Amino acid sequence: MDSRTKGKTVMEVGSDGVAVITLINPPVNSLSFDVLYNLKSNYEEALSRNDVKAIVITGAKGKFSGGFDISGFGEIQKGTRKEPKVGYISIDILTDLLEAARKPSVAAIDGLALGGGLELSMACHARISTPGAQLGLPELQLGVIPGFGGTQRLPRLVGLTKALEMILTSKPVRAEEGHSLGLIDAVVPSAELLTTARRWALDIVERRKPWISSVLKTDKLPPLGEAREILKFARGQTRKQAPNMKHPLMCLDALETGIVSGPRAGLEKEAEVGSQVISLDTTKGLIHVFFSQRGTVKVPGVTDRGLIPRKIKKVAIIGGGLMGSGIATALILSNYPVILKEVNEKFLEAGIGRVKANLQSRVRKGSMSKEKFEKTMSLLKGSLDYESFRDVDMVIEAVIENISLKQQIFADLEKYCPQHCILASNTSTIDLNKIGERTKSQDRIVGAHFFSPAHVMPLLEIVRTNHTSAQVIVDLLDVGKKIKKTPVVVGNCTGFAVNRMFFPYTQAAMFLVERGADPYLIDSAVSKFGMPMGPFRLCDLVGFGVAIATATQFIENFPERTYKSMIIPLMQEDKRAGEATRKGFYLYDDKRKAKPDPELKKYIEKARSMSGANVDPKLVKLSEKEIIEMTFFPVVNEACRVFAEGIAVKAADLDIAAIFGMGFPPYRGGIMFWADSIGSKYIYSRLDEWSKTYGDFFKPCAFLAERGSKGAPLSAPVEQARSRL
Ligand SMILES: CCCCCCCCCCC/C=C/C(=O)SCCNC(=O)CCNC(=O)[C@H](O)C(C)(C)COP(=O)(O)OP(=O)(O)OC[C@H]1O[C@@H](n2cnc3c(N)ncnc32)[C@H](O)[C@@H]1OP(=O)(O)O
């Protein structure tokens, strides 16, 4: 392939009169501009040649297409690529050239047909697929819409309700389901794919198979009145579930236009809104997240050294509490044999019981069969000593946050585990150098920080010290991939990346409340901003025991910028420890539904008098925008410190850590991306002003001050950062 072009298509014309056009753009045959323009010229040639009767489109190396080349959106957003005429791809090429052609086309789908890939196949006159192929329109997840005709053709092929489900959830279906839905005409083994597709294409020419233009089909569409009701319901749901995003509603507009005014009007509307959504801020954020998420596994100096991950055949976990049992669940779900160690029979039984309950909940929900449950549970063995650790390849310690206990465990592990065994700790805050102080195995000590519940939450913070070997990081990245986690590799310090960013967020909330802001209004503003819940509801969920233990670490290590509020310790003294005790910042009923508690005032007033804070009339009347700024700009400030210190090597890693570890809304692109969308100058000036009024908690760090004074982007690489990695 020419190195200046991004992908191509090749066409071969067989003696049977079928032209096979192959999409070639590794690794997923995405539809770059080069691929699309090549496809067009191949098509024009095929249509003009007398020796071509029909056309088959397929993808190279077992993948049809992963859709439009997502980096193309970035080029359009940055202005480095001019967008073609509105509707050029979907109307001019796919509809008027391909679908309306005098020669039929058949899509031969192997592996996957996603987004623009599936849309291209739907413009063909039939689709043949291999078993298990993934078929979907995941565009909304990227902030764009199925703009290559998908809003028009999918409802006509599978019906309006199923099309809405597939488009709004972005979830793909397998080929077998696609077949029963009418999206796929035949499912055949891989070896028969091309021959079947060629024959099918010729059968269409000979009228032995129907010549169907999906865009003209009407048999699967409901009557107009019913369609309008279905769309009205979908709009209501969308507004509720994605209140801060416009593109799903714009997508529904395109769907509705097609149903009400016909497919041509629908395609035109789709082209119009498709081109508009590209410049939405939410789209920019989501596309940034797509590439940043895939970028976390690219660690300079580690993953560029040609190291091959070693095979991890068996894992041991120490501690069967909430974290340990969650980690064990995640591992056995991905077929890793696991030994769970506890200190006595009672704790061991409880730990195994937790793993069982995690899996049983899947059986109850129907996502796991009873046989699979038994098979998965059989991978878990309990142990009360270290004898069975002699052949494990990795240990993950997940006991309580007690330094001397962890030091003892690591010293024991060194004695019992084989020399190559990775020694990981699930600590969320403690310095790993301290944990490994009593060993000579520093090069294989690493942090594997999971988030609770570990079998559900997607983030894995991989913490490396100055001594951790690159091989160990590569191994853990591989385990992370196998257990379907998004890993972020960070440096060693108190709180690592996620908890360091988290801490100022809850602290800022306590600070505001002590000065008169309403905690329930803060929670409401933060939820509207897009966080899954506000800081007070979150403290209740995590529990005050954990909140106090974490705060203690931060007060010890970063005293100059820790705000010491007594609200939580005062409530804890009164045996209100959050949701688990049914009382915290909120009161909880039997169904764990939270409602505000008028008694909370009492604790706030007492904490206020202890800290000597006064009610500040300005802070009592904060607008929602001010609440967001005062709670999240301190987070940006800490993220800047983490970045400047080299704890994170890329700003984009902090974006992913914030999204998957804190629940920061993905459509805002992550903490640093969001900060840059506001501007470093403004953030710096606000923090600087608050620090003068309210103290050092808000004081901008040197990195933010430097970039803010110039208005420079916070996410630009740190030259010669004082790397601690
Ligand atoms: C002409 C346009 C201008 C006019 C505007 C018109 C209006 C807009 C109309 C748009 C209509 C069509 C839109 C689309 O098709 S958007 C794309 C839809 N597709 C997807 O969302 C799929 C995304 N990809 C995935 O889900 C997975 O990558 C996949 C399941 C395909 C494979 O997963 P796997 O785990 O095996 O691998 P990775 O995810 O790590 O990916 C491997 C590498 O491939 C890169 N990749 C994947 N998909 C794309 C893509 N569509 N475009 C570009 N690059 C893609 C991914 O980044 C990885 O790269 P690296 O190895 O470098 O990290």
UniProtKB/TrEMBL annotation:
Gene3D superfamilies: 1.10.1040.50, 2-enoyl-CoA Hydratase, Chain A, domain 1, NAD(P)-binding Rossmann-like Domain. It comes from Camelina sativa (False flax). Its main location: other. Pathway: Lipid metabolism; fatty acid beta-oxidation. Pfam families: 3HCDH, 3HCDH_N, ECH_1. It catalyses: a (3Z)-enoyl-CoA = a 4-saturated (2E)-enoyl-CoA; a 4-saturated-(3S)-3-hydroxyacyl-CoA = a (3E)-enoyl-CoA + H2O; a (3E)-enoyl-CoA = a 4-saturated (2E)-enoyl-CoA; a (3S)-3-hydroxyacyl-CoA = a (2E)-enoyl-CoA + H2O. SUPFAM superfamilies: 6-phosphogluconate dehydrogenase C-terminal domain-like (SSF48179), ClpP/crotonase (SSF52096), NAD(P)-binding Rossmann-fold domains (SSF51735). Residues 495-588 form the 3-hydroxyacyl-CoA dehydrogenase C-terminal domain. It is found in: Peroxisome. This is Peroxisomal fatty acid beta-oxidation multifunctional protein MFP2. Keywords: Fatty acid metabolism, Isomerase, Lipid metabolism, Lyase, Multifunctional enzyme, NAD, Oxidoreductase, Peroxisome.
